[in-house]
Amino acid sequence: MQSKRKSTIKRVVDVCMTILLLCLMAYQVTGEALHEWGGIAMTALLILHHILNRRWYAALFKGRYDARRIVTTAVNTLLLASIALTAVCGMAMSAHAVPFLYGLLPVSFARRFHLAMSFWSFLLMGLHLGLHVPAMAAGLKSSRVKAVLAAASAAVAGLGLWLFARSGIPDYIFFRVPFAFFDYDRAAITVFAENLAILFAFAFLGASCAAILRAGRSGNGGGKKELLPPVLRVAAAVLLGAVLLLCIG
Fold it and tell me: Do 126 and 203 touch, CB atoms closer than 8 A?
């Protein structure tokens, strides 16, 4: 009973973190003050998330590391580091939530790192979510339903990859641009829908990566057969994103 309650709390915290992340990435919708308080809430949820999942740390140096465990551990570690840097840099620029921490770091440094790390956190969160999708989707029995979901997922992921490329995020994450450019005239629902599509695209890539790694470690003759579908799904999503970028810009 206690284990079930803890599992429910974990899921609620994870859902709240995902929703809050989408809100934090919609700065032009929330405004500065709400953005800062949302960041404080995200930091608190992150701490709670790691307390609830503290067994993961205890198991870090135990057992064998196969390819999937290496990838998952790397993504989790990078996600934690990027969110922590985002939080620290955000607090160093705070004018509303924790103004007494303003100047904790040089503001020009904090602004540039906050921008880059926030988008890294966003993308890594997508990968992190995606790496857990195969386990959740394992309960689906109908091959027809799986095929429809796979095609729909590839289409949405392709759209998300296109939005990722045209939004300027690659310039932000590689420190090419020191300031974010927001269109304050865009409707809130459009901003959230686009951010959700980008998050879904990276979750799709994470899920496909997990499926590929699972197929790669398969010891039976069906390994190659299992490997082909996720590779084709990723290729279809990337191709769709590239076509949209070439045709629409």
Answer: yes
